[in-house]
Amino acid sequence: MVWLVWMLFGIQVLCSCIAAPPAQGAGVALLSPRCDDAAVEEAADLALRQINADREEGYILSLYRIVSVREQPQETTGSVYYLILDVVDTECHVLSKKLWKDCDTRSAHSTVYGQCKAIIYINQARNIAHLNTYECTLQPVLPRYISSVCPDCPLDDSPTKPQYLDAAVQCLEKFNRQSEQAHYFSVLNVTRASMQWIIGPAYFVEFLIQETSCSKDIQVADISMCEPLPPEAAKIGFCKGSVVNSRVNPSVRVSCEIYSQQDPATEEENQEANQTPGKSKQDQQASDANLFSPPLEKTVGWVKILPPSDEDITFYSLQESQNEHKDRKPALPKDAGSAHSLDEEKAQVNKPDLSKPVTRPVILPFPEELSLSDSCPGAAKQAEGILHPLITRRPPRV
């Protein structure tokens, strides 16, 4: 009888184990979709848009190639995508709030390339795309690569050197004389700089400018004496300029874009990047408030730019820098629960049903194993050029 009791007890325990639901997120099988799949392309596009929108300094990153993607379907609707993206920087400053597809990538001699890891949750049924975390490591192209394709091209230099600040001030003086802005602007900081000998030393600078309290109706001899306007009221600008010092024909050239703090981009760009097509801002905010209960976590991430190096660093070896990066300073988080638009046509077909509660997605640690699909890494989105030697090697399977 004892053995019969133990047998029945064992059967009961076995049945209870089978009936018990698995722990949330435990033993989740990650899929390896194709890197050229339309849904993956869309996830990469949305992730990069939100990475750029989350940043407050630096330049907009453009997608070069999708390296790896793992997909985690959720129990209700939607999927979490774990992406590794090859990226290059563009000529657009992040304060412009432009879409990365609308920005020109840099010429070979000033290219900064790198890799981003991103975790993004996409729920097409509710037209939601929420970037959970991102980590990007960038580095300038090696000087020896540049010298092989453009030996006479200027190399990027430290923008903090006095000669570049002086060049920026000269460029800004010309802008202040010619612009129709109501107030004078002052130099905020130099963001990129280089020098080349032409018919004399030529300095090339990119810099941010800030609106001051000094009206252009009054002649001002020293702009540095003008107080900046409060941050909530001041306009910010991004300028590109050059100063050629020559005894025969000195020249100063400058072009600037001015961004309003309240409306840094066009209405169309703001709508496409930050809200569902066809909805007013007030309707969007009301919809966002009902999407998640409790709301999604805030986006947290960082972008690190390594100093110039003579080492032969590929896109893939940058992953080691990401893993070894200890001094992480998360980017300033944006409001949680913000919905970002998917394709307008899909949004019309899959209109969100706000009458049903949405379960928060299960987010796993970033997977160590890369995509198992033979389509990954995907094809380059841009002409290969100088970056081709840096991406020819396929990353090893982990």
Automatic annotation (TrEMBL):
Residues 261-287, 321-360 are annotated as: Disordered. Keywords: Disulfide bond, Glycoprotein, Repeat, Secreted, Signal. Residues 24-137, 148-257 form the Cystatin fetuin-B-type domain. Residues 272-287 have a biased composition (Polar residues). The keyword Nucleotidyltransferase does not apply. GO terms for biological process: binding of sperm to zona pellucida; regulation of macromolecule metabolic process. One of its GO terms (molecular function) is cysteine-type endopeptidase inhibitor activity. The keyword DNA-binding does not apply. Residues 1-19 form the signal peptide. GO terms for cellular component: extracellular space. It is found in: Secreted. Its main location: secreted. Residues 322-332 have a biased composition (Basic and acidic residues). This is Fetuin B.
